[in-house]
Structures are given as structure tokens and as C-alpha cells.
Amino acid sequence: MTNTSAGRVFCNPLDIAYRYQDFARGPLRAVFREAADPSVVRFGDRFFMFASMSGGYWHSTDLTQWEFEAAPDLPAGDYAPDVREVDGALVVTASRRKPGSPIFRSRDPLTEGFQRVGESTFAWWDPNLFQDSDGRKYLYWGCSNVEPLRGVEVEGSSLNPVGDAIDVLSGQPEDHGWERNGEDNQMDPPRTLRERFSARVFGTHSTSPYLEGAWMTKWGDTYYMQYAGPGTEYNVYADGYYTAPSPLGPFAASPHSPFSSKPGGFITGAGHGSTFQDAYGNWWHAATMRISVNHRFERRLGIFPAGFDDEGVLFCNQTFGDYPTLVPEGPVDPWTGTSTGWMLQSYRARASATSAAPGHAPELAADEDVRTCWVANSADPGESLTLDLRDARDVYAVQVNVADHQLARHKPRRPRRDPDEQPVALRAVHPQDHPVRYLLEGSRDGSQWQVLHDGRTDMSDRPHRLVQLPEGAMLRFIRVTGVSVPWGAPFALSGVRVFGYHDVPAPEPVTAQAVRTSPLDAAVSWSASVGADGYNVRYGRSEDRLYHCWQVLGATNLSLTALNAGHAYWIAVDSFGPGGVTTGEPVLVDAQ
Question: For the whole model, what pTM was predicted?
Fold first, then answer.
């Protein structure tokens, strides 16, 4: 492990000022932050990141600090904006159900903005533009549980088709376990009013998966068509891929799918993303992560180390995918070169608060679940949450995750829309106008406190702030005190996560037992390990390439539902805790 006291570090979900959305009216109204479907490219000396419903884009030189740039020339509320470098310029377009999606171009977005250069002559949703090494251009699109993803060669800035479109891929949930709909790939019938509405309007409870989010990458002589499924609101939202010898096929499904998948841990989901390189040739994958408490589209963004192995297999390193990630300063192994070595110190810490709303107890801020939260029982400034780690730990970073708890009860209702006014202008709210502010402190003895972040003077909006301590500090207590919350709502925290070291041994090793229960499933179990907070179930097609990871907390078994029919898998279970990680030995599970 790397003992990192300083360096460029980020932690998923990405800490950016996600825009507030104000959706619907009546009992289904929801106010929440949202960004999803990240399209990231490196252009010039920086990264550009576009995401749904954002009213602009972010740019960064180092993947850790992202600066938002409002882009009034771009549609503020279009879903799945696509950005790619084409002929030395950035080209941007987004989703429209009818022809006429605007197409924009810029050689220097930060100084000249984007110019509209055309519009689509056919409808596309979740578009992805790709320019091959020979200069020819291709467009891929699709977002449906009925229609396939499609592709076609296009010309110039108009993106008019050259020839006929081809069907690239369709869902195969009978062969691809990870494509099956539902939480943990298991579909339950709709129960709540919101679920029934979503099922009727969006088909969310259909057994047919939503496949979407095309992204083409060329590596060597092979074309990797990446796509997302089965649905953005599920913990198993993931990206798989097909390969082909040419941009338009023929395409073959990869048995290594999904290559991007994060079904367990603090925040889950890793679908509908983009794959890109940094200045050193290191590969990264950006993806959508889900909260889906206030609304199915309540989502966040994540970035993970990625790469291609010597057999051409595309992979992501999502083991501890929501722990701090070190951004390298040169070429590195994505499995070893991006770890800070810091372990979570706050899981199930003793938690207390000045008050708590019914059903939202203080311990919910330390249960490693972004979908639960502590909520103060009043909207008064000064409400606070305190974690007691039970003994002093060597703390290097604290991530404070705020929750959008029932904001629709507090935010004034938007007026009825003038027919000539754009609906997005009414429902979107810039987060910098309504920041969540708090005071973060740490203490070794509970009496003497040091300020780690001062929201009394810092007006920035950072909903997933990672506070990094330059030299580390021995701390036992962490306290977060609310200063102000948008629209006078109560202070709410979905996770206060403390990272660093503890002078206790790593947990004892465990031995995995795995049985194939169907062509798409395996039952995995193990004995509890002394000193373990949780377990990483790693699996893959070969013993030395366990590229997938499903984190488990509070249990010693897992129904592994993401397998592909007709393929054997190796499975290992690692135990982890505040003292480190103990790697388990892989066992073979034959195909069924």
C-alpha cells in the first residue's frame, strides 16, 4: 500500500456542484441534484466532461479539481450529451426524440465557446460520435428496451448518414446475467405510487433491459462498442462491450462483460460512461452512479482506473471504487498505481447528534450506504453529528456527503410555465445559489477541536467534499455542524467517511465456497473473519484476472447474479477492515 500524505486525490462520487432539478408536480414532485451519462475527453491540456441536465460542462487539468463552465449556447436540459474530438475540434450533440438535435463545434471552448454548425436529420438518443484513424466518422445511438443500438457512417459537421444504419447489438438477458432488470438483477413488481407511475411511463419494471449509452473506443486493431444496462436506477447498472474488426462490425459480445460494474459499497452503479486516456497513456472510465431515492434520475458521477490487458480485455479497477483514488504523475499499473492505501475507519462508528428526525438516526451516516441518511429534527443552524471512532486513528481524509432530504417540502413551488418558456429554465437551479454549508472538526480527546473545513466562510457548494489532511492527524472524534441548507431544510448527511490507518492487524483470511445455481448465477459463501468490516467478492474468467468486484457489508454470502452463460468463473473473497486487506484464494466455478 502507498503511504500518501499528499498528492492529487479524488473520491467517488465526484465532488462537483451537481445541479438541482425540480421534477413534476403534486405527490410525485421531487427536488434533487442530478448529473449522469458522463462523456469525457482529453482535449489540449485538459479534460472536458459533459453530463446530462447540467447547463454547461466541467473541465480539469488533473481529474481532481473540476471547474464548471456555463454554456448558454448549448441546450441546458438535453440528456446524454456527447463530446468527441473530431478533426482537431470538440463536437457536441445530445439526445432528441425527433430530428433536429443541434450540433456544436469548438476549437477552444474556454475562449470562444461553441458554435452551432448543424442539426440532425434523424432522431437519435444517447448519441456517440467516433472518428477512426483514417478520418472517417461514425455515429452510434440507442436507448430502449425494445430497439437495438445502431450505428452508421456519417459525413462532415452535418453528421448526415452515409449508407444504411446497422443494428449493433440488442439485449440478451437470457445469456447475460448482468443485463437482467432489477436490484441485484432480480425484478420485483412495482409497489409504490412512484414505482407504478415509472413502470407505466418508462417501462422500468419490464423484464427487458434498457440498453443505452454507446461509446466506441479503438485499441490496436479492435473496436470496442461499450454500452450500458439494465437500468440507471439499479445497483447493477453497468457497462459491457462488444468487439469488432471494423467500426460497423460484425460485433461479438465479450464474455468479460460487464467491464464496469459496482453493485456494492457506499455508492453503487457504474454504467453509461466513457473511456479515455490521460497525458501519460493511463486509461480511465467515467460512469453514472445511482442514488435514486428522491427520483430514479437522482444520480452522480464516478471515475475509475481502467485499461486493456495483453489479451485485449477491457477492464475497470472498481475494487474499493468509492475510496480515495490517487491520480498518478506518470504511467502506472491501474491495479496498484492509483491506491492511496487509506482504509475506511468510520464504518459503524458510534454516532450521536443534537437531534434526529424519526427514521433518520445518527448511525445512518456511518452505515456505508448513500441511500440512507441522518436528518436533524429541526432546520435550525448548529445541528450537528459526531462520530466516535472508539480510539484514535491516523486520519488522512474525511469525505462529507450531504443528502437532499425531502427538499420538495421546502423549496417554493415553481410557477406554472409560460408556453413560450423553456421548461428547463424553470426546473433547474444552480447549486452555487443554494450551497450546503457546514463546519467540519476533528478531535483526539473530544475536548480540543481542530477545524478541518470551515463552511462559515467557504461559500462553495461541495456535496461530496473530500477534505484531505496534508500530514495526517491522530483523531478519534469527527464532528459536522450545519451552517446553512438550501430553502431552510434540515441538515442531512448520507455519509461521513473517515480514511486513514489503524494499528490493528488486517482481518483473518476467508475461504470462498461457490456453487453455480443457474447458467447466470452462483451462490458464494464464506465464514466471518475476525476484524473484518466487509468483503470484496472478486471474480473473473481466469484465476489471475479477477477483474470484477462486488463488495459485501454485514453478510457472509452473496448471490452472484452477473455471470454470462456458458463460461466458467474464478471467484475469490478478500476480507478488509481498518487495518488493511487480506486476499483470498480463488476457487473455480464451472459453466452450467
Answer: 0.94
